[in-house]
Amino acid sequence: MRNLSDILTGLPFTELQGAADVEISAVVFDSRKVVPGCLFVAVKGTQVDGHNYIAKAITDGAVAIICEDLPGHTAVEASFLMVADSAVALGIVAANFYDNPSQKLKLVGVTGTNGKTTIATLLYQLFRDLGYKCGLLSTVENQINGKIIPSTHTTPDQVELNSLLDAMVAQGCDYCFMEVSSHAVAQHRIEGLMFAGGIFSNLTHDHLDYHKTFDAYLKAKKGFFDALPKNAFALTNADDRNGSVMLQNTRAHKKTYALKTMADFKAKVLENQFGGLLLAIDSDEVWFKMVGSFNAYNLMAVFAAATLLEQDRAKVLTSLSKLSGAEGRFDYMIGPNKIIGIVDYAHTPNAVQNVLSTVKDIRKGNEKVITVIGCGGDRDKTKRPIMAKVASDWSDKVILTSDNPRTEDPAQIIKDMEAGIPVAAQRNAVSIIDRREAIKTACMLAQPGDIIVLAGKGHEKYQDINGVKNHFDDKEELLNQFKLMA
Ligand SMILES: CC(=O)N[C@H]1[C@@H](OP(=O)(O)OP(=O)(O)OC[C@H]2O[C@@H](n3ccc(=O)[nH]c3=O)[C@H](O)[C@@H]2O)O[C@H](CO)[C@@H](O)[C@@H]1O[C@H](C)C(=O)N[C@@H](C)C(=O)N[C@H](CCC(=O)O)C(=O)O
Ligand SMILES: Nc1ncnc2c1ncn2[C@@H]1O[C@H](COP(=O)(O)OP(=O)(O)OP(=O)(O)O)[C@@H](O)[C@H]1O
Ligand SMILES: N[C@H](CCC[C@H](N)C(=O)O)C(=O)O
Ligand SMILES: [Mg+2]
C-alpha cells in the first residue's frame, strides 16, 4: 500500500479533484486488471482509448484515476488527476509506487534495430561471471540471478518493468541490463527510470508499420539518449550512419565503439570462422565464441560498456571470450553428411544479410546455402519483399514460409515476399506455407556439407496463428529431421 500523495513526486499534473490522501493498493492501466483500492491510469492506445474504461474501473474498485480528459459526468467517487500525457504519468507513478528501484542498482539500456538481445544477454552473463548479482530484461526472457521469468515483450510495460526492477533490488542485484525497444520509447514505458548507461547498436529498416517513417523510428531511438542523465554513459556504434545522431542532444558522457572508423573502443576482425571470432583489441588478440563480424560489434559494445562500468579489462576479456550469447542467435548444429543447420532470429533485411553473408564468408568451399524464411503477420509489410530479395541474393535456394502469420493470411504474406524475388532467381525459390514442411524440404534438398539457415524465429517456441501460439521450435524441427536422415 502507498499513499497517493507519496507517489505523485515529479508528476506534472494540472488539476486534482478529490483527496490526495488516499491509500493505493496497485497501479493499473488495464480495466480488466483492476483490483480494489487501485489507481487506474487511462492511456490512449493504438486500438482503443483507456478513458472509455474509467467508469468500469471505478465500479470495480479503483479509488483514484489519472487521465488526460475528465469524463463528462464526474460524481466524485474517486480522486481524479489530470495530466498532459497519461503514458508518461504511468511511468512516473509506477516508478514511485515501487520506490524507484532503478535508482538502487545500475540500470543499462540497449537500443537499436538488431543486437539488443545479444548485447544485453552478454552483459548479463559477463557481469554474473564477474561475481555480481544481476537482472536481465530481454526478448528471450527476463532473469534475476539465474531465475527465469518469461517475457511477453522486449521491453515490459511501465508497471511490470518497475515491479521486476523492485524484485531485482530485493534480491540484491547490483546491475540490470535491459533492451529498450523503439515501441517502448514511443509508448513511454521507460519514463521515470534512472539509467546508468545507454548503448546503441545500429539502425536499419524495421517497424515502419508502427513508426510510419524511418525518421520517426530514428527519433524514438534517439529519445532514449536525449533523456539519459548527465552522469550516465551514452555509448554508440560509430560505424553506423545514425550512431552520431543518437548522441546529438544527450547530456550523458559520449563514448563510441567501432570496427572501421575512429572510436574510443576499437577492434579489428582477424579471423571469422564457425568456431568463433579472433579480434584485435588494442594490443590484445582474443578469440571469442560468437560467430560473424556483426557479433564483433556486439562484443565491442559489451567490452566498452564493461570498461565504462569500471570493470577490469583482463577479467572482462577472459570472461567474454567464454560466452556464447542468447539462445536462437546463430545457433548451429551439425547433421548427417556434415550438413550444417543454423537457427537464427534474423527478421530484418539487414539481419538476414548479415547472417547469410557471414555464412558465405566462413563456409569452407562451395557448399550451398539453403535458407528458410518467413515474415511476421501484423507487422511491417514493407520489409517483406526486401527480406525475400536479400535471402534470395545471398542463398543458393530459398524456401519462403510462415513466421507468425498472426491475424493475416499466410499465403498473402508469402505473396508479398515473392514480389521481391528477382525473376532470374525465381527458379531457386519455392513457397511452402507449412514451416515444418519447409524445413523438411530444406533438409531433403541439402547435399553433404550444405548449410541450412532457418531465419526469423530463433528462440521462439511457437507459431502464432490467429492469436493461438501453437508449439513450434525451429531447432527441435531441424534436429528431428537430422535424426530421420541419419
Ligand atoms: C502496438 C503496441 O506496441 N501495442 C502495445 C500497447 O497497446 P495499445 O496501445 O495497442 O493498447 P490498446 O489495446 O489500444 O489499449 C489502450 C489502453 O486501454 C486499456 N484497455 C483496453 C481494453 C480494455 O478493455 N480496458 C482497458 O483498460 C489498455 O490497457 C491500454 O492501456 O501497449 C500495451 C501495454 O503496454 C502493449 O501490451 C501493446 O503491445 C502489443 C501487444 C505488441 O504486440 N507490441 C509489440 C509490437 C511490441 O511492443 N514490440 C516491442 C519489440 C519490437 C522489437 O522487436 O524491436 C516490444 O518492446 O516488445
Ligand atoms: N550487431 C548486429 N548487427 C546486425 N545484425 C545483428 C547484430 N546482432 C545480431 N544481429 C542479427 O539480428 C538478429 C536478432 O538479434 P538480437 O536478438 O540480438 O536483436 P534484437 O535487437 O534484440 O531484436 P528484437 O528487436 O527482435 O528484440 C540475430 O539473430 C542476427 O541475425
Ligand atoms: N520482436 C519482433 C521480432 C519478431 C520476429 C518474427 N518471428 C515475427 O514474428 O515477425 C517483432 O515483434 O517485430
Ligand atoms: Mg531483442
From TrEMBL:
Binding site for meso-2,6-diaminopimelate: R379, D403, N404, P405, R406, G456, E460
Gene3D superfamilies attached to this UniProt entry: Mur ligase, C-terminal domain (3.90.190.20), Mur-like, catalytic domain (3.40.1190.10), MurE/MurF, N-terminal domain (3.40.1390.10)
Placement of sequence motif Meso-diaminopimelate recognition motif: 403-406
InterPro entries linked to this entry: Mur-like_cat_sf, Mur_ligase_C, Mur_ligase_C_dom_sf, Mur_ligase_cen, Mur_ligase_N, MurE/MurF_N, UDP-N-AcMur-Glu-dNH2Pim_ligase
Keywords: ATP-binding, Cell cycle, Cell division, Cell shape, Cell wall biogenesis/degradation, Cytoplasm, Ligase, Magnesium, Nucleotide-binding, Peptidoglycan synthesis
N6-carboxylysine: modified positions: K221
Binding site residues for ATP: G112, T113, N114, G115, K116, T117, T118
Reaction(s) catalysed by this chain's protein: UDP-N-acetyl-alpha-D-muramoyl-L-alanyl-D-glutamate + meso-2,6-diaminopimelate + ATP = UDP-N-acetyl-alpha-D-muramoyl-L-alanyl-gamma-D-glutamyl-meso-2,6-diaminopimelate + ADP + phosphate + H(+)
Domain Mur ligase N-terminal catalytic: 23-79
Domain Mur ligase central, chain residue ranges per copy: 110-306
Record EC number: 6.3.2.13
Subcellular localization(s) per the UniProt record: Cytoplasm
Pathway(s) the chain acts in: Cell wall biogenesis; peptidoglycan biosynthesis
Chain sites annotated for binding UDP-N-acetyl-alpha-D-muramoyl-L-alanyl-D-glutamate: S31, T154, T155, S181, Q187, R189
Cofactor(s) required for function per UniProt: Mg(2+)
Modification comment: Carboxylation is probably crucial for Mg(2+) binding and, consequently, for the gamma-phosphate positioning of ATP.
Enzyme class: ligase
GO molecular function list: UDP-N-acetylmuramoylalanyl-D-glutamate-2,6-diaminopimelate ligase activity
Domain Mur ligase C-terminal stretches: 328-458
Function: Catalyzes the addition of meso-diaminopimelic acid to the nucleotide precursor UDP-N-acetylmuramoyl-L-alanyl-D-glutamate (UMAG) in the biosynthesis of bacterial cell-wall peptidoglycan.
Family: Belongs to the MurCDEF family. MurE subfamily.
PANTHER family (UniProt xref): MUR LIGASE FAMILY MEMBER, UDP-N-ACETYLMURAMOYL-L-ALANYL-D-GLUTAMATE--2,6-DIAMINOPIMELATE LIGASE MURE HOMOLOG, CHLOROPLASTIC
Name of the molecule in the record: UDP-N-acetylmuramoyl-L-alanyl-D-glutamate--2,6-diaminopimelate ligase
Organism: Mucilaginibacter antarcticus
Lineage, broadest ranks: Bacteria, Pseudomonadati, Bacteroidota, Sphingobacteriia, Sphingobacteriales
